[in-house]
Design brief:
By secondary structure, chain A is an alpha+beta fold. Chain A is built from 21 helices and 29 strands. Chain B is an alpha+beta fold. In chain B, helix 9 runs antiparallel to helix 10 and helix 10 packs antiparallel against helix 11. Classes of the chains: A alpha+beta, B alpha+beta.
Chain lengths: ~800, ~290
């Protein structure tokens, strides 16, 4: 990135916001096509049952109903939901778009109704008669893998989907050398992504042109096009996917869903446009969930705080079937199990388990929040055991600056970092020393105050194609139109990240224009060259680099043309203020528009130069990038109620160079808020029958603005060597870094009560119970305080020597 | 999220509304803001044949003094109650309670009459109106009748309103001298309803003894109730933190607390005591002219 910039790195307000704020944006549900029919889906009320019969005759006869189809009706016409992840020896668990024979989770589609309006479609669902024979639901993943458990899928001998292992370094030696070993079980609970806009699909088929257009609220329009074409067995070039405004994804729309293929099928079959809009209950039951791991960590360490080795076992609840990336997500936990520490030996073992629940898949962070959580909690357990300051234990284990690029025992190479730098800044900004003094004072007054730290690293900018099931590059086309206005077409699919603004800044900077002269187009497969999409904090690092390269190609061409027209050396030109100047003689210039016009009128072009201004790049990154940071927070617990209040939050993040700090800050804030949600409130709860009892927003609590204090954010800047912009990615870091900071603060607050670890979410009653029966414990010695509840959680498997 | 078919009627006068309510009986539901009814209909837990929208009735939205009492029209919104100068001055408990309901959007649409008639066991108003001993006016084609609030809440979602009646007004006495009130609520983090909500009213005698105490509790059981055992412990005694703590232990007496995902019965019972003590403490401070 150039040192002095006009737009790049500046906090420009988002170009997207006026239309969003004024209600002028268009979402899938805003789309109304002539003659459009409406789709409703009958869903299983059972977690596990055999379908004996489905009688649709009454529904079919209801007023307004056009077509009713069952799983048996469509099984030969629509392929099953694709899974791109491949893990050796993984058992197959394909999901049909509508269940036939057997349902395996509450909310699985059983039949579909098409009617002339939404109400008739919904009413007809009540007229479909399904005879179910309930089977034993398999809900608890630990019980699911016990001998004798009911097996979900025919042909499987048990519910283990796969076994995955990754080991690096000499683990045996590490545990032998250790002064101490701690073992801890930690549950990373199941979450519901809860995008504000639920999913929705409109499909329209033009039989004459044989063109199917699918509008979907998705993060991956091109991958969706390929997969829908395959599922429907139609040529890919006859399918167009358009992604209108998307009201949040968080990974939940990084998928191929049954309804997307069903809508396409119905549009083709009926020759009518159809619309399906997901209700919130359907969104909770049938859009992917996140996290859901039971992690057991053993850490070997020396008395000085040096961590020697980690042995991790993950039980990953995958749900009933695989969605696009389901089996892959837990393996990211294994890849990132080193955290931002130099740990000589690590072994991660993952057992993927099939249960009668909705599939888990990528939810903001996707495998890395789980890794960071278990590593950061573990470091705090080590610090607590040694009675050392958690900041000191962290510092002790950071790799040195000279270690970068740093190869972890898990086989990834961290591109660049300065972990002590971000930690120092976070400690300084938070006034950490003073906070500890205040905490000591507060404890003497009987107050229950905790300070939490987290230093994290995450893996993003996904990412080299060798590591990505569908390729990890990104495309961009830049077109300078004859008037001089610029269109950047990106294969990324922004849905809140703000690349319409940051890419315009990039274009304006490179071409010497205003950001208003640069328009960013995305999310239409008929217009934009094939792209991979927006997820894994990749849109700027990979998609932005592609845009940069395409912009540079055109800039070079313009320079040659301008040099030709001006009689100047093309290498000595400067693009600025809508003009192209001579570097040697700043008085000599040519208007940008004149050069563009010359490229199109093509009357005077240098020999061998093609007319027009259009460049496309497919950028393939050489590695992932590894953003990092340090978070500090303070909580206070109301001992009478167990209510945890977050008093202070300081976040120092490093995502390399920054195109627009306002966008990064927005991503950081949002990420911290979602992390707060996991730490304090959120938990998808299935009962023993496999019913999702947090089935609505009245029972599934998500954070509100008033739950959070002012967040102090700052940055350090360690450019990534992986791409020419030096950017890393900022979309998920907040979620990854903040959850363990909050958990560490709560554990710190509860330490005088003899609590070593408590699982999220920190709901009041759970916290309150931990403090019951422990009178006046503050300042008391830990080992003299009776741990009143969850002894297994609190003291499980402690061993010292 | 799509309700079953229903017929929508929007009468312009109370008389028309009462005739419709009488005619359609059990087949009709009254829409008075819709923040409870509409979600139930969308989930098809309620499938009324007729929805009688009384939101357009004129003259049902007011807060005014009448014969030494404050009369509040049934269609007065939570936001209007929250921001009423008259209520803030003479009956602050209602305004304070209204401010804890839902969020701004909910408070702009939801109404006092709608909430009371719905009688959700976790709604906020019931605690306050019980502590305030309000009168509830029920209108029907036969005229109006007055129901003491103590007789109003019968069970979960069930009130003393008879078929054919519409709750038309709530009457409340202005705060007596040396009286303080407070509402303390432990909110359910997802819905914002009360896991436990306690409204307290305390009147002090000249020597600092408690002349009168009224405590309304919501969220704990199937219906809101007066914590009579706590009140009994307080009356005639000298106010102190210790007294409040001891008396508050009886907050859940005689009640079988609800138990759900968000709070077990035991926790609710314990929180009833904590929140009763906190409400009493604040009401007492206010009765003394503090806070």
């Amino acid at each position: 990135m150039p040192a002095a910039t006009r737009y790049l790195g500046k906090p420009l307000k988002r170009k997207e916001d006026p239309r969003l704020i004024q209600g002028l944006a268009h979402y899938v549900d805003d789309l109304v096509l002539p003659g459009m029919h409406h789709v409703a889906i009958l869903r299983s009320p059972y977690a596990h049952a055999q379908i004996r019969s489905v009688d649709v005759s009454k529904a079919q006869a209801a007023p307004g109903v056009v077509l009713v189809l069952t799983g048996a009706d469509v099984r030969g016409s629509i392929g099953s939901i694709p899974c791109a992840a491949q893990i050796p020896d993984m058992k197959a668990a394909p999901r049909p778009v509508l269940a036939h024979e057997r349902v395996r989770f509450v909310g699985e589609g059983v039949a579909v109704v098409v009617a002339t309006d939404r109400y008739a479609a919904r009413d007809a669902l009540d007229l479909i008669e399904v005879e179910y024979e309930p089977l034993t639901p398999v809900v608890d993943p630990e019980k699911a893998i016990e001998k004798g458990s009911t097996v979900l899928h025919e042909g499987h001998k048990d519910n283990v989907a796969y076994h995955w292992e990754l080991e690096g370094g000499d683990l045996k030696a590490a545990f032998k050398k250790a002064d101490k070993v701690i073992k801890q079980r930690m549950v990373n609970q199941r979450l519901i992504p809860t995008a504000m806009e639920t999913r929705g699909v409109v499909a329209d088929y033009k039989p004459g042109e044989r063109q199917l257009t699918v509008w979907s609220s998705t993060q991956i329009p091109h991958l969706l096009r390929t997969q829908v074409a395959a599922m429907l067995d139609v040529p890919e070039h006859s399918v167009r996917v358009i992604t209108p405004e998307v009201g949040g994804g968080f990974g939940s729309k990084l998928n191929i869903y049954a309804e997307e293929a069903l809508a396409g099928y119905l549009a083709i079959r009926l020759g009518k446009p159809v619309k399906w809009i997901e209700t919130r209950r359907e969104n909770f039951q049938g859009t992917i969930h996140g996290r859901d791991q039971i992690d057991t960590v053993e850490v070997a360490f020396k008395n000085d705080g040096t961590i020697l080795g980690l042995r991790i076992h993950v039980i990953a609840d995958l749900g009933a079937y695989y969605q696009l990336l389901t089996p892959l997500i837990p393996t990211l936990t294994g890849l990132m199990a080193s955290g931002c520490y130099k740990i000589p030996a690590i072994r991660t073992e993952i057992t993927g388990v099939l249960t009668n629940k909705m599939s888990t898949d990528a939810y903001r962070g996707a495998g890395r929040p789980e890794a960071t959580y278990l590593v950061e909690r573990t470091v705090d357990l080590v610090a607590a055991e040694l009675k050392k300051d958690p900041a000191e234990v962290r510092r002790k284990n950071f790799p040195k600056l000279s270690d970068f690029p740093y190869a972890t025992p898990t086989g990834v190479i961290y591109d660049s970092a300065n972990y002590p730098g971000s930690l120092d800044l976070a400690l300084k900004l938070s006034g950490y020393k003073k906070l500890r003094q205040e905490q000591a004072k507060a404890r003497k007054q009987g107050r229950c105050v905790g300070i939490g730290l987290s230093t994290y690293v995450e893996i993003c900018a996904m990412g080299p194609s060798s590591a990505m099931p569908a390729g990890g590059w990104e495309s961009a086309t830049v077109r300078i139109e004859p008037s001089g206005m610029v269109n950047i077409l990106t294969g990324a699919s922004p849905h809140g990240q703000g690349q319409e603004t940051s890419f315009a800044q990039l274009g304006a900077e490179i071409l010497g224009l205003e950001p208003g002269d640069v328009n960013v187009i995305h999310g239409d497969t008929a217009i934009v060259p094939y792209g991979i999409g927006t997820f894994g904090s990749r849109a700027t690092a990979v998609g932005g680099t592609a845009a940069y390269k395409a912009l540079m190609k055109l800039r070079d061409k313009l320079a040659v043309l301008a040099g030709f027209l001006m009689g100047e050396n093309p290498g000595k030109l400067v693009f600025s203020d809508m003009n192209i100047f001579s570097k040697t003689n700043p008085k000599k210039s040519i208007p940008f528009g004149e050069v563009v016009a010359a490229a199109y009128t093509a009357k005077r072009l240098p020999p061998n130069m093609e007319p027009g201004l259009d460049a496309t790049t497919f950028f393939e990154p050489s590695n992932f990038t590894f953003p990092f940071g340090a978070h500090v927070c303070v909580v206070e617990i109301d001992q009478e109620t167990g209510d945890v209040k977050l008093l202070k939050y300081v976040a120092v993040d490093d995502c390399g160079n920054v195109l627009n700090p306002l966008l990064v800050e927005g991503q950081t804030h949002g990420g911290i808020v979602q992390a707060f949600g996991q730490a304090m409130l959120e938990e998808a709860v299935y009962d023993e029958q496999g019913q999702l009892i947090t089935g609505e927003l009245t029972d599934y609590a998500i954070p509100r603005a008033a739950d959070l204090p002012w967040m102090e954010t700052d940055r350090t800047v360690t450019p990534s060597p992986v791409n020419p912009l030096g950017v890393k990615g900022a979309g998920e870091a907040g979620t990854i870094g903040a959850t363990p900071a909050l958990a560490n603060a709560v554990a710190d607050a509860l330490s005088p009560f003899g609590v070593r670890h408590v699982d999220m979410p920190f709901k009041r009653e759970k916290i309150w119970k931990l403090m019951q029966g422990v009178r006046a414990p503050l300042g008391a010695r830990q080992d003299r305080v009776r741990a009143p509840l969850g002894a297994r959680q609190n003291n499980g498997g402690r061993r010292s020597k | 999220m799509i309700p079953a078919q229903f017929e929508y009627v929007a009468p312009k006068t109370l008389e028309d509304a009462l005739r419709l309510v009488e005619r359609h009986g059990d087949e009709a539901k009254i829409l008075a803001g819709g923040h409870s009814l509409l979600p139930l209909m969308k989930l098809r837990l309620a499938q009324p044949r007729y929805v009688i929208d009384i939101g357009r009735l004129r003259g049902m939205n007011y807060i005014r003094e009448e014969n030494g009492r404050i009369a509040i029209g049934a269609l007065t919104t939570h936001a209007e109650i929250e921001s009423s100068d008259l209520l803030r001055a003479k009956c602050p408990l209602l305004a304070e309670t209204a401010a804890t309901i839902g969020d701004i959007q909910v408070r702009n649409r939801g109404t006092l009459g709608g909430s009371l008639a719905h009688a959700d066991p976790a709604a906020d108003y019931p605690a306050a109106v019980l502590a305030l001993d309000v009168e509830i006016i029920a209108a029907s084609t036969a005229g109006t009748r007055t129901v003491a609030v103590g007789d109003f809440f019968l069970d979960m979602l069930t009130t003393a309103l008879r078929p054919g009646e519409i709750l038309s007004q709530v009457r409340v006495a202005p705060l007596a001298a040396h009286t303080g009130t407070a509402y303390e609520k432990l909110h359910q983090p997802a819905s914002g309803f009360a896991i436990v909500g306690v409204a307290a009213r305390i009147t002090l005698g000249k020597d600092g003894t408690i002349e009168d105490a009224a405590i309304g509790v919501t969220g704990l059981g199937p219906k809101a109730f007066r914590a009579a055992a706590v009140e009994k412990e307080l009356r005639g005694k000298k106010a102190s933190d210790k007294l409040f703590a001891e008396a508050s232990r009886h907050a859940a007496r005689g009640v079988d607390p609800l138990s759900d995902l968000h709070a077990s019965a035991d926790y609710r019972r314990e929180m009833a005591a904590v929140y009763t003590r906190r409400a009493l403490g604040r009401a007492f401070a206010r009765a003394q002219g503090k806070a």
